[in-house]
Design brief:
Blueprint: H1 2-14, H2 22-34, H3 37-42, H4 46-50, E1 58-63, H5 70-105, H6 108-111, H7 116-137, E2 146-148, H8 149-152, H9 158-166, H10 168-173, E3 175-181, H11 188-200, E4 207-210, H12 213-230, H13 245-253, H14 260-289, H15 304-307, E5 311-313, E6 318-320, H16 325-329, H17 348-354, H18 360-371, H19 380-403, H20 411-417, H21 419-430, H22 438-444, H23 450-484, H24 490-524, H25 528-550, H26 560-564
Helix pairs in contact: 2-5, 5-7, 5-12, 7-12, 7-21, 12-14, 12-21, 13-24, 14-23, 14-24, 17-18, 20-23, 21-23, 22-23, 23-24, 23-25, 24-25
Organism: Durusdinium trenchii
Transmembrane segments: 80-106, 118-137, 209-231, 251-275, 409-430, 458-477, 489-508, 528-550
Protein name: Solute carrier family 40 protein
Amino acid sequence: MRALRQKAALARQYGLFRAASAWNVTTTLLLGIFVDESAMVNGGDESSYDLLEPVAKADFFVSHSWSCPSWMKVLAFCHYFNLDLAILSSFLACLLAVLLLLLHAGSFSGIAQQSQQVLFGCLIGWPTIAFIVPYLFGHLTVMKSFWFDQVCVDQAQKEVKAQILQTIPAFIAKSNEMLVDKTYFERLWCNYEIAVRARTSASTSAIQIVPMWMPLWTLVWFITSSIASLFETGVQSPKFDRESRFSLFLSIFNSCPVPLYVYFVTALPFGYFCIQKIGSHKKMLDQMRNFDLRDAKCAVESDRQVIEVETKHTRVSAVWTAVQVLQLFDEALQQPRSFCCTTLESSPTTLLLEDSDDDPDETASKAIQAIRHVTSYPSQEEIIDQFNDYVRGPLCDSVMKVMGQEDFISLKLCLVVVFPVWLMGLAFVLGCDGRSDCETSAQYAGFTSVEQYMLTNAAVNLFLQPFISTLGLAAMLKMNHLGSTLKGSTGFQMLVGSILSGSVLKAGDLLVFAQHGILAVVVTQFSLLWLAGLLACLILDVGLLWLLFFRNPLRPTSLRSLAAG
């Protein structure tokens, strides 16, 4: 649109568009932990802006709410850029550990002869460190450019700052992607920025929403799972009853060594983060559904005039200073600058020529205002209402398609946080259930060979256990959501949610041991009836997977409707 092209030309003329590195962004945010952010807005470091080189475009436009704590933004930044690197690093570290153990032992069964401390240190501790370090610091290697207001807006010179704020729509349009935190939807600037991006981008992945709860939840649950896995060091499986198929099944099904209270204690911290996630997600959606531009907040109230319209009444007509939101959504400004109206002594085109010293968009707005009462163009209030409807409708719907409802969590994130469970399973498989003699473990479990035992053990510990744990995380979130709907204090809701979550954890372990028992019976004492039971269990697993992650019609998709505008 014409207004954006003019703003882009202004930014190029004065070198206003500057970009920072990932290091600049995170260090500025960390500095905000020790310095009052409002002070940084009103009087930031002058040199931080001056040291940046002018650019034609940036890789990322970072939109955020100043009310969100800086340390949460840092973690969200790390999560978005470093998660995949951390996963890959941890997985490669695990493969390297297995390779070194295999070379040292000479065979997979020989690895079990190593001490349990060595096995758990190599297969759990080392991959955990290989995950956390890249997760927190991997972005320092990202060769990307960022537009981030705390760095890329001159906070010291008010005139330059005003020019930069006026040309922000051009910066948004000139950035490849837009990162936003999900605490921002009550903020005036943030809603406008995402609206500009939605109207100007043709990419289906141009807007990336980074929830603030997600990185802390990921780190806490990942570390908790790793520590819990370390406590399993040296635990040996019992000797199973092989007298009959049913006795073998019962001996495996009843072999769960975890006391009942452990499930509920474990569910408490998870319940806390679930309540936080549900509350922040619901607040975000409510803010969008009830959004009103007139009530939106500014971190610095003096910035409001850059977005809204200031109407001045004179004896002849109203003078309309059309900026930002009204330029974006005013139908009149999207039409060609020519009008036919005999009621005016001078046409709008003449006004444009006569007021050549004025801003073209402002002059056109004055002309349009003069004839608006005889046209079908919307009034100022109607334009604001159109913007409100846009945020409440298409924008909110698209965000819900990306983020889902408040009780939804992505399959990828669940797989990430149960990765330590998979590592623990790998340690059990290679450690032969805590025994240095794999033949003895195979005999105790009722298998005729070590290979048969290790393959079955791998199926249980490397597939069934992590898979059921993944389903359990999503189910626990839904249980906490159920608890959050009850009347009462947050503590009461969290307690109810934790009790329900603990029940989910216990039910998940019972399901794992039941399927383990059925699989052991099928492998050692084959029966078509037990095979049918195993297939039924697998169908149940797939059904739960669909129900928890894919049944929701508002599950994550691309922001296609946003990009289409």
